[in-house]
Design goal:
about 650 residues, alpha/beta, Glucose Oxidase, domain 1, 3 domains, 9-stranded mixed β-sheet, 4-stranded parallel β-sheet, 29 helices, about 10% strand, globular
């Protein structure tokens, strides 16, 4: 058979096979040699599933003499397929899960060598960067819940497991893994973060490179520059992005909860120090099993609070306001509220100078070399802000771990390596509270209320352009509303100059019911990188990427499609935004219409008399899967409850509905 011209596939090529294939067909095989190590008691008392499991394990090639070794499950978000030399056979959705299989193999070898039986499964994950501005974003947050459900089902589907090791890296897969592991209860579990990718030697990081379209549209860059920078941005093949976005923040939070080994978050993917974390995590899982320590002994209210404290000290992504409550809920713990987050952010100083917050904006791998989570925790311990009696996956308390870190060769070597490689003082990356204060690092998260957000909203106040902050440390912006129902319309207006100095972009119908609570980094990144746009504010019931910066207020509640007053704003209405970066308080209010100005109280009255905008509608491509997710999470506490599935609350609503029908 001759090959068809390149790119053409014939019917014969689809239907026909090489005749030699039929000659080798078989219906029987000899089967594994040896015998199952079973006893009469096992045959009489064990469930048939446990016995058949031994047959399958032998069939897959495990030594029958070792079939009664303790079994441990490794779950990951691995995606794509690599050849032995690392070249791609099939691409993954993103670099964050591309090399994760190497960690699985490393952990599995360690378990096998210590006379345990490793099982491995994967639930891969999408990329928020790849889906920015596309219909794929409508599935993003909803996917987290689905993945957590599947991961939990896989865990329970190996009923003979003694513990679970989870490996994940990025925005949705890692929170899903935290939620799954949090449900482990009496079983030990441990999370191995997938690490970060390296910076290009010359070029742009993965956050800035996502703005090449907006910058090209404004003639800031050439086609050639965009093509070259876009090619270089992901400088190594694995790991999460180089900035402290959702992926990196989730790694930090997992370690801060005690679910990961000390100094595991933000390791450079593919390097020996990264693989070493998987090896030692497998040992730690065995130790937890030997000590009888379950996940419920580690994930406590104190662990959740410690994670919130470290989140504040890092200045992490606001998306963790969704994922930390979800993890707490999965563990059967109290979900932190917006008030809890606000109180912690008022108390805890920001100590980390990282992309995108600045002021210098070091990359995540540089934060790792500066000491990352344990180094930040040393400062927080000295300030009395942590509960260091909390147990961790080392089998020891946080206090014990920090004592080890402070005197460790690991700490000395990685910090020295940062000086050698990049000529960076690690104390310029992770600062003491006094030094951070003197350099103007401010707390990160503020929760504005007002007549447009009666149930609250969130802004990363530290990321507002410092030139817009007055002598009283206040950001004040009053301007006309430019209302958009879809992100596509908003980004089109920005790219084509239809948004001007002083405007307030009001992007609605982006919440859970409208668009799956889409992430609108395409909008915020364009505003950051276009000259006049630092003077444009954004209000939305959607959410932001962890790399977003600027005067961007998200999570506005109630959302427009749930009757929120944000859905009654009209084009040209005057909106006032005030953010106090010192007190971490803020307001967003309607204060004018047409040529008339009035007080926020009058704005509240007028909003109450208005009908919702007639053009409010879900995204035209909103999938039924995400519509169902939005309804279930609304019944479970909504955005501020972590967008979880609360089975008791959902069933109670269904019961009430059935009784009233």
């Amino acid at each position: 058979m001759t090959d068809a011209p390149k790119g053409t596939v014939t019917a014969a090529q689809v239907l026909d096979s090489d005749p030699k294939l039929f000659v080798d067909l078989k219906t029987h095989a000899p089967g594994p040699s040896g015998a199952l190590p079973i006893t009469p008691e096992m045959l009489l008392n064990e469930p048939s599933g446990n016995l058949f499991g031994l047959s399958q394990d032998a069939g897959m090639g495990w030594d029958p003499a070792r079939l009664l070794d303790p079994e441990f499950l490794i779950l990951s978000t691995h995606g794509g397929m690599r050849a032995a030399d690392g070249t791609p056979i099939a691409l993954g959705f993103h670099t964050g899960h591309w090399e994760v299989g190497l960690l699985v193999a490393e952990a599995a070898r360690e378990l096998r060598n210590r006379r345990a039986i490793p099982f491995a499964g994967a639930v891969t994950d999408p990329c928020d960067g790849r889906t920015q501005g596309t219909d794929g974003m409508l599935d993003s947050l909803a996917y987290r819940n689905d993945a957590a459900v599947v991961l939990r089902r896989l865990m329970r589907s190996l009923p003979t497991r003694k513990g679970v090791l989870g490996i994940a890296t990025c925005d949705k897969g890692l929170p899903a893994m935290m939620m799954a592991l949090a449900s482990s209860g009496k079983y030990p579990s441990i999370l191995v973060p997938g690490g970060v990718t390296l910076l290009p030697e010359s070029g742009e990081d993965a956050g800035k490179v996502q703005t090449i379209g907006a910058r090209f549209s404004q003639a800031q860059i050439t086609l050639e520059y965009a093509a070259e920078m876009g090619c270089k941005a992901c400088a190594s093949p694995g790991g999460g992005c180089q900035f402290l976005g959702t992926a990196a923040t989730a790694q930090v939070v997992a370690e801060s909860m005690g679910l990961s080994l000390p100094h595991a978050a933000l390791a450079p993917s593919g390097q020996p120090i990264w693989l070493d974390a998987a090896t030692r995590s497998a040992r730690a899982l065995l130790r937890l099993y030997q000590q009888g320590i379950g996940t419920r002994d580690i994930l406590t209210d104190a662990a959740i609070r410690n994670a919130m404290v470290v989140h504040a000290a890092f200045g992490g992504s606001t998306n963790l306001l969704l994922h930390v409550p979800a993890t707490a809920h999965a563990a059967g713990l109290k979900r932190p509220t917006a008030e809890d987050w606000a109180a912690i952010n008022r108390q805890v100083p920001r100590l980390v100078d990282a992309l995108p917050n600045g002021p210098n904006g070091f990359a995540t791998v540089q934060v790792f070399l500066a000491g990352a989570v344990p180094e930040v925790m040393l400062h927080l311990r000295r300030a009395g802000l942590l509960d260091t009696s909390a147990l961790t996956v080392t089998g020891e308390t946080l206090d014990h771990n920090l004592d080890w870190w402070e005197q460790s060769a690991r700490r000395r070597e990685v910090r020295a390596r940062l000086r050698t490689l990049d000529n960076i003082d690690p104390d310029d990356v992770i600062l003491s509270p006094d030094c951070a204060r003197s350099r103007g690092l401010t707390a990160t998260v503020c929760f504005p209320h007002g007549n447009l957000a009666p149930e609250g909203s969130v802004i990363k106040s530290t990321s507002i352009d410092p030139t817009l902050i007055d002598a009283e440390n206040l950001y004040r912006h009053t301007g006309p509303a430019r209302v958009f129902i879809t992100e596509t319309a908003a980004i089109d207006a920005i790219k084509h100059g239809r948004v001007g100095h002083g405007d307030v972009i009001v992007l609605i119908c982006g919440g859970p019911a409208g668009a799956g609570m889409q992430e609108i980094y395409q909008v915020t990144s364009a505003l950051k990188n276009l000259p006049f746009c630092k003077h444009v504010a954004v209000l939305t019931d959607a959410r932001f990427s962890g790399v977003s910066t600027g005067a961007c207020v998200g999570h506005i509640s109630p959302e427009a499609l749930a009757g929120g007053p944000i859905g009654r704003i009209l084009e040209g209405d005057t909106i006032q935004i005030v953010v106090d970066r010192a007190a971490l308080k803020g307001t967003i209010d309607l204060v004018g219409e047409a040529n008339e100005s009035f007080t926020p109280e009058e704005g509240t009255r007028r909003l109450a008399t208005r009908l919702p905008r007639p053009d409010l509608a879900p995204h035209p491509s909103m999938p039924d899967d995400s519509r169902l997710w939005a309804a279930l999470t609304h019944a479970s506490g909504g955005v501020w409850g972590g967008c979880v599935y609360d089975a008791d609350a959902i069933l109670a609503q269904l019961t009430r509905g059935a009784q009233n029908s």
